[in-house]
Amino acid sequence: MAAEAMTYEGAVERLEEIIRRLDSNQAGLRETLELCQEGKGLIEFAAGELDAVGKCLQELRLDELIARLESSPA
Question: How far is Cα 63 from Cα 68, in angstroms, rounded to an integer?
Fold first, then answer.
């Protein structure tokens, strides 16, 4: 999955596929290594997306607080 086309939802879906494959105990050593590496990259991507959303939500709350403070009577 190309990084520019990847979405959080797509990353999570692919991680679920990887987990199912690893849980099946049918992957060989090389495939297991490749799946683990891919999974690590997907987890890092998903964590970054969640972090970005969290920061955005925090900024929105701060903006809302500032607006309330500015509009309240002194």
Answer: 9
